[in-house]
Design brief:
Mean pLDDT: 81
Strand content: 5-15%
Structural class: mainly alpha
Radius of gyration: 21 Å
Order of helices and strands: HEHEHEEHHEH
Number of helices: 6
Low-confidence stretches: 1-25
Largest sheet: 3 strands, parallel
Strand order of the largest sheet: 1-3-5
Distance between the termini: 46 Å
């Protein structure tokens, strides 16, 4: 092995980027305003949440940290936040989200709502991944059994 080769591979995020590139994101976060993204002082529709998700996800893909401001937002609901923030857990690791997303200018109700959304998203995607893994294992077992029971001539 030459001096340029590493003996261990770097830990990677969901999208296979080394976590070092995740931690080494730009020093200044992308500042996003929920009000500006949705175009009004309330985020109650899935479409609004989708626009917020797309803005955050794009910034993450570019290696940026994100500061999401809830300033001048009078109303948010869990359904919209599930799409905006919860959906991130299906694309990025918890580590990526924790180290790269900061929400600001929130009232106590919105803080509690975001916490609920995050907890539910983590549980949902954990169950989804466990189910996919169990299905994959079952299919591999069926395939192995089919191969071993195939008569050879």
């Amino acid at each position: 092995m030459n001096a340029n080769q590493k003996t261990q591979s770097e830990p990677r995020g969901h999208d296979s980027r080394p976590l070092a590139s995740i931690r080494g994101s730009t020093p200044e976060p992308a500042r996003l305003s929920l009000r500006e993204i949705v175009g009004r002082g309330y985020a109650v529709e899935n479409e609004a949440g989708q626009r917020v998700f797309e803005e955050i996800a794009e910034a993450f893909r570019q290696g940026q940290r994100v500061e999401l401001s809830f300033a001048n937002v009078e109303l948010t609901i869990a359904a919209s936040l599930n799409v905006a923030i919860g959906q991130l857990y299906g694309v990025f690791t918890g580590l990526e989200i924790r180290t790269r997303l900061v929400v600001t200018d929130m009232n106590q109700h919105d803080i509690a709502l975001v916490k609920l959304v995050v907890d539910n998203a983590k549980a949902y995607f954990r169950r989804q991944r466990a189910g996919a893994s169990a299905l994959r294992n079952e299919l591999q077992a069926v395939a192995a059994k089919a191969v071993s029971s195939t008569p050879t001539n």
